[in-house]
Amino acid sequence: MLQFLSDPKLFGVEFFNQRDFLLMLFRFMLNFTFTLIITRYIYYANSRRKDYLFTYILISIAVFFLSYLLQNVDLQLGFALGLFALFGIIRYRTNPIPIKEMTYLFLVICISVMNALSDKEISYVELLFANIALVVITLVIEYFWSFKHENSKTIIYEKIDLIKPQNQKKFIKDLETRTGLKINRVEIGKINFMRDTAEVTIYYFWDKYSTNFFEGETLDNFTFTDDYESPNNVR
User: Fold this and answer.
1) Which tens digit of pLDDT belongs to each residue from 94-147?
2) Rounded Cα gap, residues 115 and 64, in angstroms
3) Residue 128 is inside which H or E element, if any?
4) For the CA atoms of 69, 75, 77, 78, what is the dihedral angle to 10 degrees?
5) 26-66 pLDDT tens trace
6) What residue ranges of the chain are covered by domains with CATH 3.30.70?
7) Among 90, 101, 154, 202, which is most buried by a count of CB atoms within 10 Å?
8) How is 74-98 classified by DSSP, letter by letter?
9) Which of 206, 222, 180, 205 is nearest to 46 (CA)?
10) Is 80:67 a contact under the CB 8 Å cutoff?
11) Against a cut of 0.70, is the pTM above it?
12) Residue 194: φ, ψ to 5°
């Protein structure tokens, strides 16, 4: 017991090292702070996707501890690149991730690995600059330099008479009235004359400030069908 108190070790492993623990805690708080800024206050504030917010934060924490605790193992750069390759292969294949969400996933992994594996040759000023640069660039691109992105949605349309070429204006106007979207173009797919329905793909430029009638959710979560009544009925 006295030997343990004088030299605390458990099965030959140091039981507690105050300096190393405080260093890990400092790096963890640094990583968590910048990850939270990017995921909660930049990504989530714009997309309102709680499922991805949950995923990004937990992946960031897991990757940080995995990288930090194994940094003394002779893996280094190969280990970091292996993490990117692993997530690139998995890609949550049960539910494909949009390219923007994949970019944010790559970003949080990059920040976590960077904060965990940076050694003594990299000063804290350099590390802080790298984190701040990623946050600022992401913020600028997301809010001040974002280009219009054309989204699409496939719906089942029941007013089959309006899909005729001579009724194009009425057709577009009816779709805009019922969806609340400014439609850019329309493609007509399969037509079912037995049920008087047609498969229509609408293309629109999504803007959270003008097309927010789904209570903050993105349109990728919804599908319009022929039982559509009003935007308030969509869930």
Assistant:
1) 566 778 888 898 899 899 989 988 888 889 999 999 999 999 999 998 887 766
2) 7
3) helix 124-139
4) -130
5) 999 999 999 999 999 999 888 778 888 998 999 999 989 98
6) 150-233
7) 202
8) TTHHHHHHHHHHHHHHHTTTTSPPP
9) 206
10) yes
11) no
12) -70, -40
| For residue 25, pLDDT beyond 60 | yes
In this structure, the number of other CB atoms found within 10 A of the CB of residue 187 comes to 11
- Residue 232 is encoded by which pair of tokens? 């308030």
CA pair distance 178, 24, nearest whole angstrom? 54
The answer to whether the CB of 183 falls within 8 A of the CB of 12 is no
Residues of the chain above pLDDT 90, percent: 30
CA–CA separation, 223 and 225 (whole Å)? 6
Residue labelled with tokens 């009724």: 167
Number of alpha carbons in the 13 Å side-chain half-sphere of residue 161: 0
Torsion of CA 61, 63, 64, 69, to 10 degrees: 120
Dist. CA 65–CA 28, nearest whole Å? 8
Question: What average pLDDT does the chain have?
Answer: 78
CA angle 36, 32, 27 (to 5 degrees): 155
Cα–Cα dist 108/83, whole Å? 12
**Residue 146 per-residue DSSP state:** P
Residue type for position 154: T
Say whether domain 150-233 belongs to CATH 3.30.70: yes
Of residues 137 and 224, more confidently modeled: 137
CA–CA dist 47, 232 (Å, integer): 20
